[in-house]
Amino acid sequence: MIGLGNAFRRGLSRRLVRAARDPEQRPDMSLGDLIHGLGDRSFGWCIVLFALISMLPMPIGSTMITSIPLILLTGQMALGLPQVWLPGWVMRRQVSRKRFQRRVLWFGPLIRPIERIVRPRYGAIFTPRVERGLGVFLLFVAVALFAPIPLSSYLPAIALLLAGIGLVERDGAVVVASLGLGLVAIVVTAGVTVALLMGVDALTHGRPFSP
Question: Is the pTM of the predicted complex or chain greater than 0.85?
Fold first, then answer.
């Protein structure tokens, strides 16, 4: 993976907003254009990007689409691939520029404190073997994001956002924090899924439902 030096300290929010600009004032942009505008295709940047997209206000069930790139990215990390690969249909997907920029600015209060504290530390986490294990865990978090459960997407999306920031800045402390939040997201998603399945089964068979 490729580090970006002091990119976050120069302002992640500003860089994402600039990458979404277009001199021709077109209302939409492809994800490929946005990634190209960032100037880097590392796993960390792409995870940050798609985690933010998953936080955009969209209809229920949309995370079943926006989480697919994150599943692909984390799966590639788990396999130890050195570079990111995404299919053409993902790179061609259109996103509203203004909506994306507004969401980045809206998350500014969350991102700016992280920008101030991130720094390279706990470098042992970023060995190839450990990163593959990290990819396996983040794959489970991305699968939790995939589950079409109302209001359940923010926990895994924020966990993946933190993981992406930690990967770009080689900040092991931020990565560890993302793992803790990711574990909570997996447990919550699994619990809600089991409760929903039990409720559906009870309704189907005419039995009273008790979680």
Answer: no
